[in-house]
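BUG: 3D viewer hangs when loading the predicted structure for this chain

Environment: internal workstation, default settings.
Expected: structure renders.
Actual: progress bar stalls at 90%.

Input used:
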Amino acid sequence: QVQLLESGGGLVQAGGSLRLSCAASGRPFSSYAKGWFRQAPGKEREFVAAVNWSGGGTYYADSVKGRFTISTDNAKNAVYLQMNSLKPEDTAVYYCAASTNYGLPKRISEYDYWGQGTQVTVSS
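Structure tokens produced before the viewer hung:
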């Protein structure tokens, strides 16, 4: 079992930046692929970004490409999402997740462990 604890959500103005953190506990985290998803009110949960187990490969949804960066720190068993140039449409609950699948999983069903979610609100 892997437990994920998120932090860093909050309020920010459009054009601003925010950094989300997700710390893992229970078992070593480095061998898992990691991802971020988000869910806006009235919408389904959607993929945002993923990083493979080695940290050498990343993949982003088109809506955030060039603005968001996913990274890992294996020494701290943590994954991060740096969000720049935030837009009101980025407002959502953000979830971190870990996957035992190979590569860069993008489907909700491919992830095995989930954080509790953290609210990100971008004002205009």
